[in-house]
Specification:
The chain is mainly α. Helices cover 84% and strands 0% of the residues. Helix 18 (429-454) crosses helix 19.
């Protein structure tokens, strides 16, 4: 057992490393999302909605492929206290073998994908896009080595530089070709550049060793993570599969773009949480007191960012779309808003899943995912007939009804994961709900202020700017009046360090 004096020395160091990790993860997510957004704006203005529908169909399949490449063992490396070079090398070679196998299968499956979505162009498009499966496998372990060491600066640099290069390629092809290939090569170049830069900066070379015993030792956590990821992908992407088949590429384009832009916030925040918090939680897993304090504080921090940020985005959706994309994509606005509501539950679920994963209880995640997917499947079956209610005049009507089923399934998953997280951490459910609920209540008047200000101006830019300033001012003021210690820490971290 660690002596109290040594614990006291470790705690500030861990706190500092966690804060540094959060800062670099925030830099990573903010910078990449700005680049991603800027590129997306150009591409959505230059390319047809059909092009986005075609690539959206490919992305549905790609999501499953990338999930299998990781195999969950990379997350198991982070969860393990002291992995050595044999552990890292074993996982690396396993990922490479799996990626080659999956790409081969997808190459031959490309005609079947095209048949399902009723478009022969998907054969060549998908075979090119699936190169990302091979390229991403090269950088997974390098990334996880840095995350484990809480040194995410190289990962940030690789992500930003890789995306910048891919974006340049995508924009160039959008202006010169003007078709779906701009989106395909943007993705391939981005993934390849990221992996290459990680190899250059991390300077880790896998040893020519492979240990079946080491791989089996990761199975308990890794298999649970992969199973959970698979079920989550089913939940996230099954709708796109049926939309493309049932109502066509135009509706799929609206849905895929709304989903993409909503996930920019959801995936960014979830990514920051996982990269920043999971290594910290793995270090305090043997100390119940420290674990409870850490999880409660992480819960408050997440809620502080989540409810305000997503609430404001929902309120500002219309002026944001008009400013960035004109009226070409107006039909996607309501989908974007509904997906953000779902995203609130998704982020909280991701947070609580990290608690469970840090304790090595990945089987609980699988059980929760199974229950969530059962609810999602029931919602899909119930809503599947309404997809046909979409019309040329209102191409998203059926999709709107379907999304209410998604939201219900996500809310159920949140509740189940919360119960499981409270059980494994030893903290009460009510404590987590109260901690988060405070910031839900303080975000409400801030969002209301944004809506009120937006109604007074006609310019999309002014609506966004004035509404955002009003919302931020009200949010900061309300939390200051309530004496939020977390807000003081956040502001100190931003302005003093």
């Amino acid at each position: 057992m660690t002596p109290p004096s040594q614990q006291q020395q470790q705690q500030p160091d861990l706190k500092q490393r966690t804060a540094r990790t959060i800062k670099w993860n925030v830099v990573d997510k903010v910078t990449t999302q700005v680049l991603y957004a800027a590129t997306g704006i150009v591409l959505m203005r230059e390319l047809s909605r059909e092009a986005f529908g075609l690539v959206g169909a490919v992305l549905v399949v790609q999501a499953f492929a990338l999930m299998f490449v990781d195999s969950g063992f990379a997350s198991a490396l982070i969860q393990r206290k002291d992995p050595d070079n044999r552990d890292y090398s074993t996982v690396f070679w396993f990922n490479i073998c799996i990626s080659v196998l999956i790409y081969t299968l997808l190459w031959f499956a490309a005609p079947l994908i095209a048949d399902w979505f009723h478009d022969d162009r998907l054969v060549t498009l998908s075979r090119a896009m699936f190169l990302t499966v091979l390229l991403s496998a090269l950088g997974i372990v390098q990334t996880n080595r840095m995350v484990k060491r809480m040194n995410v600066r190289p990962v940030t640099v690789a992500n930003v530089a890789g995306l910048a290069l891919g974006s340049a390629v995508g924009i160039y092809l959008a202006f010169t070709r003007g078709d779906a290939w701009a989106l395909v090569w943007q993705s391939v170049v981005t993934t390849g550049a990221k992996s290459l830069l990680l190899w250059v900066m991390v300077r880790w070379i896998p040893a020519p060793v492979f240990s079946w015993s080491r791989l089996r030792s990761f199975f308990k956590v890794g298999a649970g993570v992969m199973a959970g990821a698979f079920l989550n992908n089913v939940f996230q992407n099954i709708y796109g599969i049926f939309i493309g088949n049932r109502v066509g590429m135009l509706s799929l384009a609206y849905y895929s773009q709304a989903d993409k832009w909503s996930k920019m916030g959801t995936a960014s925040l979830s990514g920051v949480l996982t990269s920043s918090f999971l290594p910290t939680l793995s270090e305090v897993q043997d100390s119940p007191e420290r674990l409870i304090r850490a999880t409660r504080k992480m819960n408050r921090f997440t809620a502080y960012l989540l409810f305000f940020g997503f609430g404001w985005l929902i309120a500002a959706a219309t002026p944001v779309f008009h400013l960035l994309f004109g009226e070409k994509w107006d039909a996607a606005i309501i989908l974007f808003q509904l997906l953000l509501v779902r995203g609130i539950f998704t982020v909280l679920t991701s947070l609580y899943s990290n608690y469970i994963l840090a304790m090595g209880r990945s089987r609980l995640l699988v059980v929760a995912e199974l229950l969530r997917d059962a609810a999602a499947l029931a919602a899909l079956v119930a809503c599947f007939p309404v997809l046909a209610l979409s019309t040329p005049a209102r191409p998203t009507y059926g999709l709107e009804l379907m999304l209410y089923g998604q939201i219900a399934a996500s809310a159920l998953m949140w509740l189940l994961t919360l119960i499981a997280a409270a059980k494994v951490t030893g903290s009460g459910i009510l404590g987590y709900i109260t901690d988060a609920g405070v910031y839900l209540l303080t975000a409400a008047p801030a969002v209301a202020a944004a809506v009120a200000v937006q109604a007074l101006v006609s310019s999309p830019f002014m609506a966004i700017a004035a509404g955002g300033i009003a919302a931020a001012a009200v949010y900061l003021a309300v939390n200051a009046m309530l004496g939020s210690a977390l807000q003081r820490e956040v502001l100190a971290l931003v302005f003093k360090r």
